[in-house]
Write a structure and sequence with these properties.
Blueprint: H1 3-70, H2 72-77, H3 80-91, E1 96-103, E2 108-113, E3 123-138, E4 141-156, H4 163-219, H5 236-252, H6 256-264, E5 269-273, E6 279-282, H7 284-290, H8 294-297, H9 308-311, H10 316-319, E7 323-329, E8 335-345, E9 354-361, H11 363-377, H12 387-405, E10 410-411, E11 415-416, H13 430-444
Antiparallel strand pairs: 1-2, 1-4, 3-4, 5-6, 5-9, 7-8, 8-9, 10-11
Length: 456
């Protein structure tokens, strides 16, 4: 037996089993639907009778109450002709079959009954209502008083036709047509689908599975394993195209893991943002600098890492084209001065467009600058201000004195003030005290202070 004949026999056997199962299920559904239609018809008929009976009873109560109210005055006056005249509209109603008025002692005051025997299958409803009027039983107090009782009978024919029978007939007709069409369509579709499946599964199952696994590896960034390429024709061309794509990607593409390794190896903080300034990537140095985890920085604005004083004048487009000094705020609230360098990322693909910012910590450099300025004006051993500090404080004092006398253009003996000398202010603290002492000594000697031999 060849493989083709085996597959054909297997497909035919499977088709026969499926078709038989479909027929059995269809027959079972048909029987259950017929039973459901019969039950639904019975329930519908019961509901129709119950609804009609309820409506008839409500109408009987309403008519009895209205008739009792209409004859209250005539009963109180004992006017029989008045009772008949007031009851005539109710007696003309074709559904009223009997009307009786009985006194309190049981004496029958009025009785009317429609001639002829009632038809079989009609609906009956009985209702009674007291005939009341307001009487002054106690001087000055009016209370309701019952004078008689009015009884009323209504008859209404049953709705024609059987609702249940009509529902069952219509449901059976629809089920028969639907079942026949469903079986025919199911057989045709099953035959065609079985033929196509027999042809396609055998030819595509193995190569499609291999292609799926290769595509998943390439999608995950694994370009090292080659694609299994079969003979040309069928899926062979697709496999060769996928292999060529894998080779080109391996030569020209940097995967995400390699990019993260490069960024995390940098000692400066790096932020890659979208064109509107939303952080997409933050390297390890950025996380250590700010005290945040990478997940906490991603999808936040680059403005969120800056100090509040630098946010107002921060322009994203300008910052992406220059280097400037800014202050960032860490998660603990500490402020750190940084050199903030930005550059734009230009790409034809919108998803790769954005900006890249590099933040270098300037804390050590700022500390060194302050140390250099201090050593330029103070003795490193004695902490005493040196000559440069003395001249600096002296110039500040002379400039302040000139501003106090109103001469803002020149200082006697020193010529025009240079740039910032007009707005200099003396330092306070230890340097200010030393400078003040040296200024006082200079004034006491008429500005010709000389150091003693060997003195500082």
């Amino acid at each position: 037996m060849t493989a083709a004949s085996f597959k054909l026999r297997y497909a035919l056997a499977a088709f026969a089993v499926v078709l038989f199962a479909a027929a059995a299920v269809g027959a079972l559904i048909l029987l259950r639907q017929q039973a459901a239609n019969h039950q639904l018809g019975a329930l519908a008929e019961q509901a129709t009778h119950a609804s009609a009976q309820s409506e008839l009873a409500s109408r009987a109560d309403s008519l009895a109450a209205r008739a009792a109210d209409s004859i209250a005055g005539a009963v109180r006056a004992g006017d029989s002709s008045g009772m008949v005249r007031r009851l005539q509209p109710f007696l003309d109603d074709p559904t009223v079959s009997e009307l009786t008025i009985s006194g309190l002692a049981g004496r029958e005051l009025f009785r009317w009954q429609r001639a002829g025997a009632p038809d079989p299958g009609v609906l009956h409803a009985h209702a009674s209502a007291p005939v009341r009027t307001y009487m002054e039983s106690i001087p000055g107090a009016v209370t309701p008083s019952t004078l008689a009782t009015l009884a009323l009978d209504l008859e209404q024919p049953t709705p024609l036709g059987s609702v249940g029978g009509r529902l069952e007939a219509a449901g059976a007709q629809r089920i028969g047509i639907t079942a026949l069409l469903g079986l025919m369509l199911a057989g045709a579709v099953a035959l065609f689908a079985g033929f196509l499946a027999w042809r396609a599964i055998a030819a595509l199952q193995r190569p499609v599975g291999a292609l799926i696994r290769s595509a998943e590896r390439i999608g995950q960034g694994d370009y090292t394993r080659p694609v299994e390429v079969g003979p040309r024709g069928g899926l062979g061309d697709l496999e060769q195209a996928l292999e060529r794509m894998r080779g080109r990607l391996r030569q020209s593409t940097i995967n995400k893991g390699y990019l993260h390794s490069v960024l995390n190896s940098m000692t400066d903080a790096v932020f890659v943002t979208s064109p509107d300034g939303v952080v997409r990537i933050a390297n390890t140095a950025a996380c250590k600098l700010l005290g945040y985890a990478e997940e906490e920085l991603i999808n936040r604005s680059i403005l969120a890492v800056l100090d509040e004083r630098d946010r107002a004048d921060f322009d994203l487009l300008r910052a992406a084209q220059e280097t400037r000094e800014l202050v960032v705020r860490t998660r603990a609230g500490q402020t750190i001065p940084v050199s903030f360098t930005g550059s734009r990322i230009d790409s034809d693909d919108p998803q790769f467009q954005g900006n890249i910012f590099v933040a270098r910590n300037l804390t050590d450099r700022k500390r060194a600058e302050r140390r250099i300025r201090y050593l330029a004006r103070y003795d490193a051993l004695t902490k005493v201000p040196n000559r440069m500090q003395f001249h600096h404080v002296l110039q500040q004092t002379i400039a302040r004195a000139a501003l106090g006398t109103g001469d803002r253009g020149a200082v006697p003996g020193h010529g025009p003030l240079q740039g910032g000398q007009r707005h200099l202010r003396p330092r306070r603290g230890r340097s200010g005290a030393g400078g003040a002492r040296r200024t006082a000594d200079a004034r006491g000697t008429g500005g010709h202070h000389r150091r003693p031999p060997g003195g500082r």
